[in-house]
């Protein structure tokens, strides 16, 4: 079976939840402590053995491409100033993987964004990582999904439990556990039988949601290509997931990493606080500040 060596990172969305900041700055470039969100996502892909990364970008998103390119002025200045540590970090970030950029000319939906990556991926298995979700933990979610895919050859997507009040923000699945045991334990595997995009609490088949990490067989492209616009008039990735599920070819997996929805204001602030607390330059100062704030609240 072919190994998962390619990934698609859709980053062409309009980021309306983060306006006005995202009018001119891609939300994927907003910094969490000292790295743009998309760098955490690219690092996760690389840790899972991914070599070729297709970033789906759109109008106003050239800052993403520039980030993974040379910046001679900055590099020259750091070199002359002897700031080798920063220079090394910049060099490392741009040499992490082969970054390939493809434009999605119109934000027609996540399914459409993934289909834009087909010319690079071909019929190989591939990972999809949403550019505005940061997953922190070892092993990474993409590693866990790819390992599982390599055992079965069946598309495997991340699943997580959400509160009933949250189901309308996600694709929600109906899924049968593949073995007895605790339902929400990391590594727990499910056979997905039904998927509903952003259902109301009464329509939701469960409270098992799809966050933004997936490993797919190449066959998903044909399913996306044959879709008509779904919820909100968009080509929905969840509709293609349902098609494979109906053929018995879609598994789900609970994961161990901590997830931050950095495309959402509160999620973004939480990511900055938690990652700021473990950052060597900011951890101690931030801890003191949080203690001070807690006394005031
Ligand atoms: P979101 O729905 O979270 O992104 O899509 P959005 O549309 O940019 O955000 P809001 O809701 O308006 O604030 C999840 C991921 O899919 C990408 C987004 O860039 C994001 O990383 N996406 C979405 C595309 O690349 N193209 C699309 O047509 C839609």
Give a short summary of the structure.
By secondary structure, the chain is of the alpha/beta class.
Textual characterization of the structure:
This protein has 297 residues and is of the alpha/beta class. The protein has a single domain (6-263), classed as Spore Coat Polysaccharide Biosynthesis Protein SpsA, Chain A (Alpha-Beta Complex), CATH 3.90.550.10. The chain is built from 11 helices and 14 strands. The chain has helices spanning 37-47, 62-67, 72-80, 84-94, 110-115, 118-121, 141-152, 220-225, 237-246, 265-277, 283-296, and strands at 6-10, 31-32, 35-36, 52-57, 98-103, 126-129, 133-136, 155-161, 171-177, 189-197, 208-210, 213-216, 250-254, 258-261. The strands form 3 sheets. It has a 5-stranded mixed beta barrel with strand order 8-11-9-10-13. Strands 2-3 form a two-stranded antiparallel ribbon. Strand 2 and strand 3 (35-36) form a beta hairpin. Helix 10 packs across helix 11. It is globular. The mean pLDDT is 94. Bound molecules: uridine 5'-triphosphate. Uridine 5'-triphosphate binds at residues 10-18, 56, 104, 107-110, 112-113, 130-132, 263.
User: How many structural domains in the coordinates?
Assistant: 1
Computed Rg: 20 Å
Structural class, by secondary structure, is alpha/beta
CATH H-tier superfamily? Spore Coat Polysaccharide Biosynthesis Protein SpsA, Chain A
Which runs of at least 5 residues are low in confidence (pLDDT < 50)?
A: none
Average pLDDT value? 94
Q: What bound compounds does this protein have?
A: uridine 5'-triphosphate
Report the strand count.
14
Task: Specify the number of helices.
Answer: 11
For the biggest sheet, the summary is: 5 strands, mixed, barrel
* Global geometry: globular
Tell me roughly what share of residues is in helical segments.
Answer: 25-40%
How would you spell out the order of helices and strands? EEEHEHHHEHHEEHEEEEEHHEEHH
Strand content: 15-25%
* Termini Cα gap: 56 Å
Predict the CATH topology.
Spore Coat Polysaccharide Biosynthesis Protein SpsA, Chain A
């Amino acid at each position: 079976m072919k190994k998962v060596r390619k990934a698609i990172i859709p980053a062409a969305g309009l980021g309306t939840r983060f306006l006005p900041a995202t009018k001119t700055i891609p939300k994927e470039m907003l910094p969490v402590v000292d790295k743009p969100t998309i760098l955490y996502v690219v690092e996760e892909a690389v840790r899972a053995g991914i070599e070729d990364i297709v970033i789906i970008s759109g109008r106003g998103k050239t800052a993403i491409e520039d980030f993974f390119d040379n910046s001679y002025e900055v590099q020259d200045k750091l070199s002359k100033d002897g700031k080798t540590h920063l220079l090394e970090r910049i060099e490392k970030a741009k040499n992490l993987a082969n970054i390939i950029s493809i434009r999605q000319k119109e934000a027609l939906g996540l399914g459409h964004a993934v289909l834009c990556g087909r010319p690079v991926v071909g019929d190989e298995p591939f990972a999809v990582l949403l550019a505005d979700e940061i997953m922190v933990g070892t092993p990474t979610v993409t590693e866990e999904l790819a390992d599982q895919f390599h055992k079965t050859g069946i598309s495997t997507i991340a699943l997580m439990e959400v509160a009933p009040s949250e189901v309308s923000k996600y694709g929600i699945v109906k899924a049968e556990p593949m073995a007895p045991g605790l339902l929400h334990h990391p590594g727990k595997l499910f056979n997905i039988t039904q998927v509903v995009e952003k259902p109301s609490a009464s329509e939701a088949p469960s409270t098992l949601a799809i966050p933004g990490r997936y490993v797919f067989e190449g066959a998903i492209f044909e399913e996306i290509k044959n879709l008509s616009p779904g919820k909100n008039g968009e080509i929905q990735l969840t509709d293609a997931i349902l098609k494979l599920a109906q053929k018995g070819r879609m598994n789900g997996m609970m994961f161990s990493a901590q997830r931050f929805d950095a495309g959402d204001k509160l999620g973004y602030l939480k990511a900055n606080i938690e990652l700021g607390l473990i950052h060597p330059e900011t951890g101690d100062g931030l801890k003191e500040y949080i203690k001070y704030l807690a006394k005031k609240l």
